[in-house]
Design brief:
Elements lengths: L3 E10 L2 E11 L4 E5 L6 H9 L5 E6 L2 E2 L5 H4 L4 E4 L11 H8 L6 H14 L1 H5 L10 H13 L5 E5 L7 H18 L2 E6 L2 H4 L5 E6 L2 E7 H6 L1 H7 L3
Parallel strand pairs: 3-8, 3-9, 6-7, 7-8
Antiparallel strand pairs: 1-2, 1-4, 4-5, 9-10
Helix pairs in contact: 3-6
Bound molecules: adenosine-5'-triphosphate.
Adenosine-5'-triphosphate binds next to strand 2 and helix 1.
Length: about 240
């Protein structure tokens, strides 16, 4: 059984339709990238899953109907989203951001342990734990956004364009961390990206979205090798 099974997902902004009957499925512990050009509907699809916009269609998630679960309860059910622009609290310190990421965790000992775990994984965040998040570099802020999301102990992590504004070498580092989280921590990831070339080196599978339609899907290596897909949708 798939962890997430999305059928005929549609969404609109007023009269403008942004998603047309999108179907996709993600197995537990898969690392999926959602590729597509500017305005293709990638962000809208993530928002529909996290519930930040209304959508129609089926979203089966670990045996539940996600459409019936209120957006603010989806985090409690293990669905965490890192929005475009990272969504860290710039006026709070790194450590406070991690605390805020764990608001749904009531066991304070667990929060302390999780913090240590992610500080071990992101030593630069430990070094800067008392600094304001707004003073971090773009790459450090993306790592903070990731660590903050991890503090909620997600099962499925949705991440919107982590590479935005980052140098290629930093983007590579972020994708290597995603893969590591998939390999070592049992996380399932759906990451929206425009950088197809790089993200396909790390992901297991990919979907391609164009003008609100899912137009292709397959293993990362298949998508990478498909010249027609590359030419038609990935701007290669
Ligand atoms: P990007 O890489 O630029 O974020 P995207 O693939 O994430 O692009 P979406 O942001 O999902 O694309 O946009 C899909 C379509 O919906 C676009 O045509 C866009 O203009 C439209 N759209 C997005 N947000 C809104 C909004 N708040 N109001 C009206 N239309 C919107």
């Amino acid at each position: 059984m798939m962890m997430l099974d999305v059928r005929n997902l549609s969404a609109s902004y007023g009269k403008v339709r942004a998603l047309f009957d999108c179907s996709l499925a993600i197995a537990q512990n898969e690392f999926i990238v959602l590729l597509g050009a500017n305005g293709a509907g990638k962000t809208t699809l993530l928002r529909a899953l996290s519930g930040t916009i209304r959508s129609s269609g089926e979203i089966a998630y670990m045996g539940s109907d996600l459409q019936k679960i209120a957006p603010e309860r989806r985090l409690q059910n293990g669905v965490a989203q890192i929005p475009q622009g990272r969504g860290t609290f710039t006026e709070f310190t790194v450590d406070e951001n991690l605390t805020l990421g764990a608001t749904i965790v009531s066991d304070t000992r667990q929060v302390r342990q999780d913090k240590e775990r992610w500080y071990d994984r992101f030593p630069r965040l430990r070094e800067r734990r008392s600094q304001l998040a707004g003073n971090l570099s773009g790459g450090e802020q993306q790592m903070l956004a990731l660590a903050r999301a991890l503090m909620s102990r997600p099962k499925l992590l949705l991440c919107d364009e982590p590479s935005l504004g980052l140098a290629p070498v930093i983007t590579r580092e972020i994708f290597a961390i995603f893969k590591e989280l998939r390999d070592n921590d049992g996380l399932t990831l759906l990451v929206v990206e425009q950088n197809a070339d790089l993200s396909l080196k790390f992901a297991d599978r990919a979907y391609v979205i164009e003008a609100g339609h899912i137009v292709a899907g397959g293993s990362a290596s298949t998508i990478r090798a498909d010249e027609l897909i590359q030419k038609s949708y990935l701007g290669d």
